[in-house]
Amino acid sequence: MTRNSRIIEPLLNILEMEREQGYQDRAVAGGLDKLLQRWDAELRPILDEAGSYSVLTPVQREAWVAEALKRLEPLDGGRPSGSRAKKTPRRAPPRRARPSPVTLDDEAARLRGVGDRVAARLKKLGIESVRDLVYHFPHRHNDYAKVRTISELVMGEVQTVVVTVWEVTAKPLRPTLWSVQAVLGDSTGNARATWIRHARPRQRPYLANSLKPGDEIVVSGRVSAYHGTPIFRDDPEFEPVKGQEELVHTGRLVPVYPATEGLPQRTIRRTVKNALDAAISQVAEYLPDESLHRTGVMGLRNAIAQYHYPDSDADKSAARHRLAFDELMMLQMTVLSRKRDWQAEESGIAIDAKRGRIDGFLDSLPFELTGAQSRVLDEVLADMRHDRPMNRLLQGDVGSGKTVVAAAALLMAVLDGYQAALMAPTEILAEQHFLTLSGLMSASPGGSAVAEGRVPGLSRPVRVGLLLGSLSARVRRTMHEMIAEGEIDMLIGTHALIQGAVEIPRLAVAVVDEQHRFGVMQRAAMRDKGERPHLLSMSATPIPRSLALTLYGELDVSTIDQMPPGRLRTRTRWVEPTKRDAAYGFVRKQVEAGRQAFIVCPLIEGSEAIQSRAATEEHERLSAHVFPDLRLGLLHGRMGLHEKEQVMEDFKDGELDVLVSTPVIEVGIDVPNAAVMLVDGADRFGLAQLHQFRGRVNRGMHQSYCLLLADDPGEEAKNRLKLVERIDDGFKLADEDLKLRGAGDYLGTRQSGLPNLSVASITDQDIAALARQEAASILDADPGLAEPGHAPLAERLAKAAVELPGEMS
Predict the structure, then answer these.
(1) Are 647 and 635 in contact (CB under 8 A)?
(2) Gap between the Cα atoms of 209 and 49, Å rounded
(3) Alpha carbon of residue 227 to chain centroid
């Protein structure tokens, strides 16, 4: 018996079983493709190029199996084709029990067409269950709904035709790459279509064999002209008309899904469609009837179906509205529940926060508070007077004066006999806060981690302490002891503040700067250092108020929307690469006029992976070749504490003309005589960060300038730099940054901890407002979601596990 004869009968049995099971590719473990590859050498002369069975639709598989049986049956038992000898009857395969219905919680592999290979690639997309497929939403749709005749086709547009295949040819481009071309026609004329397909060496691609003259198909794609004949190029979508109850790839609004290598759109569409057909009826509505009535949103089951395969643009829009509402509703339910829980917990510390108690401190300042600063300070002090702990977000544009408001809140706690603390995300920012607060309290650091000064209204000296991870073990131990004994009134530091060894027994007010860079657990650890202290979170990145309410819905929001009087507008210019020397010349003129300058570079040291300027190398180059007669300093995050302090002191005291730095000077640096900010490699930064750099100048009474340099910016980068040049209002610039980059990049994806939104955008403010209103209505009526009608909502909320801003550390 030949090798061929030994495999024919088992293969025939498998194909018969596949036919009985409805062409689900489950007749053999691992799928039919795996078996065909193992027997490729023996079957190639018989089946030619069989192609991949797993990627076919059930209708296409039926045709494939029929053709294979037609070729294999004459060879059964080694008999030559056409032999009339009686064959040994094959034993019918045992009848299998009807499989149980597919459920949402089943593995995706239970669906027909999902073999091991497809399942492994789906897993790369985070898809493991049928439910995951149902909620794997498209990120856009191709409009293939415009069905026309060939004579009506318009060149350059995406269109759809229903045609008959007249002729199919295949030409090899390389041993494994083929061009498949088809001549198509309808009653009004002819057209052509071209596909590029891969195949095994010396074998024609499956498409060339499966697409046959006489087939009626639907073709969708962009049309161009070839010698006067319409042609669908660039791999147009197509599918047969016969046996198709519903078009999936053509003739409609066709979904385009997030994909991965080796998983084409056709496979994802077919798999998602199979999941919807099998399990969409099991999707349960979780919103109460009264919520559906109040909000007017589409039913959930219908919304899911219509968002995958919409009947019209209007249906797609309504479906997106409902699904975006769901995501934002879960976010709002979470933040509002958190806010209510926070307010319902046991009492905190009520501070005698009368404004008059700090009048002496405010009068000692070298400036008067703006109206906005005064208003926000009153909001903060009003919170502190209650025994319900404050939970407030303080935001404002660069230079608007947030630190003074925070200092007043910290001082109020000290005046009442308590301790206060401020936590910053970086050591250099913590050091700057230490120097700033020490100065406001008329205290001199004297080069140590403790500063002592006199404040009007306080009978004893106020002690300001600095706690950093980089301090020596001896200094840290001393600081820990002083803090625990209550000898430190105001404590400034980084994450070191929330370490277990740090005890702040009388902590009453905690300020968290750049709060979106800290995780929820880190902020909670800060609160745990005292008896539920008042918490004031600050953000130097202006966020549109509506966006802040969406992201930080558990916080009360105070905004300083007014700049100190007398501030001149910083003149900002994008400098073309060819004018770099002119930019250096301008810096020199400003220094000669008595001013100082920052030069900021993206990197500390040069990198082969990132082609951008580095601070250490630029400091050497500028010192030796560009400004050899000027005094240049270098500042970056790897320098030691005392070294950084010395550099900043030298710059503030005017002993340095130019400070070359990395982005560590982005926030918290205040040098009134600095009038020029030159950002080298400006295309490496977002709009908000460039605005922060610009805020380091314009701190005195001199005209200030911001120069933006980039060696080879693309068009998108040029447009961003021109926006910074044109807009100097931080909130307006934040709006533009949000539009350009999306919320994740705008706030910093790694730190922001934005909720995982697959349909909604964080800028869907109308939908967010509706979701917030509905969440508040439900929680007002049933705070614990204990009513029977709210059980599905409670279950959905528990499963959603919404990740809030700041939860990523």
Answers:
(1) yes
(2) 8
(3) 47
- Alpha helical stretches, state H, 729-783: 730-747, 749-752, 765-781
Going by C-alpha positions, the residue among 170, 640, 676 that lies closest to residue 427 is: 640
Phi, psi of 625 (to 5 degrees): -120, -25
Q: Which residues of 152-181 are buried (b: 16+ CB within 10 A; e: fewer)?
A: ebeeeebbbbbbbbeebebeeeeeeebebb
Angstrom distance (rounded) from CA 60 to CA 62: 5
Given a contact cutoff of 8 angstroms between Cβ atoms, the answer to whether 513 and 538 are in contact is yes
Beta bridge partners of residue 463, listed in sequence order: 452
Per the structure block, which two tokens stand in for 90?
A: 């094959």
Place of tokens 């078996």: 35
Q: Is the dihedral of CA 45, 48, 52, 56 positive or negative?
A: negative
Task: Tell me how far CA of residue 300 lies from CA of 144, 269, 454, 770, in angstroms.
Answer: 25, 20, 63, 17
Q: In the numeric block, which tokens belong to residue 473?
A: 């073990």
Q: What are phi and psi of 180, to 5 degrees?
A: -105, 125
Q: Is 333 strand, coil or helix?
A: helix
* Cα-Cα-Cα-Cα dihedral sign, residues 524, 530, 532, 535: negative
Residues 7-54: pLDDT tens digits? 777 778 778 777 777 777 777 766 787 777 777 767 767 776 556 777
41: region left, alpha or beta (phi > 0 left; psi from -120 to 50 alpha): alpha
**Spatial distance between the Cα atoms of 564 and 372, rounded to a whole number of angstroms:** 9
CA distances from 290 to 176, 286, 295, 327, 778 (A): 60, 12, 9, 19, 10
Q: Long-range contacts of range 746-752, CB-CB < 8 Å, 24 or more positions apart?
A: 746/686, 746/688, 747/516, 747/541, 747/543, 747/551, 747/805, 748/516, 748/517, 750/808, 751/516, 751/517, 751/806, 751/808, 752/516, 752/805, 752/806, 752/808
Higher pLDDT, 543 or 600: 600
Entry pTM = 0.58
DSSP annotation of 398:
T
| 768-769-775-778 Cα dihedral, nearest 10 degrees | -150
- Can you tell me which residue has the tokens 């340099």? 709
Q: How many other CB atoms are there within 10 angstroms of residue 586's CB atom?
A: 18
Contact 489, 461 (CB under 8 A): no
Q: What is the mean pLDDT of residues 634-650?
A: 83
Question: What one-character-per-residue DSSP string does 632-697 give?
Answer: EEEE-TTS-HHHHHHHHHHHHTTS-SEEEE-GGGSSS---TTEEEEEEETGGGS-HHHHHHHHTTS
- By the 8 A CB rule, do 169 and 181 touch? yes
Query: How many Cα atoms within 13 Å fall on the side-chain side of residue 45?
Result: 5
Among the listed residues 194, 272, 197, 204, the one whose alpha carbon sits nearest the alpha carbon of residue 236: 194
Q: Starting at the edge strand that comes first in sequence, how are the strands of the sheet with 658-661 ordered?
A: 571-575, 705-709, 674-680, 596-600, 658-661, 632-635
Tell me how far apart the alpha carbons of residues 216 and 243 are, in angstroms, rounded to a whole number.
11
Q: How far from 502 is each of 426, 432, 482, 498, 729, CA to CA, in Å?
A: 18, 21, 10, 7, 40
Residue 281 carries which DSSP code?
A: G
Residue range 466-515, pLDDT digits in tens: 998 888 888 888 889 999 999 999 999 988 888 878 889 899 999 988 76
What pLDDT is stored for residue 744 in this prediction? 47
Radius of gyration of the chain (CA): 35
789 vs 347: CA distance, rounded Å = 33
**pLDDT, tens digit, for every residue of 177-188?**
888 999 988 888
Query: Where does 444-553 have alpha helices with state H?
Result: 473-484, 520-527, 545-551
Give the HSE-up count for residue 787: Cα atoms under 13 Å, Cβ half-sphere. Answer: 10
Cβ-count burial 98-137 (b if 16+ within 10 Å, e if not):
eeeebebebebbbbbbbbebbbebbeebebebbbbbbbbb
Tens of pLDDT, residue by residue over 743-768, are: 544 444 333 444 567 788 766 778 88
Cβ atoms < 10 Å from Cβ of 458: 17
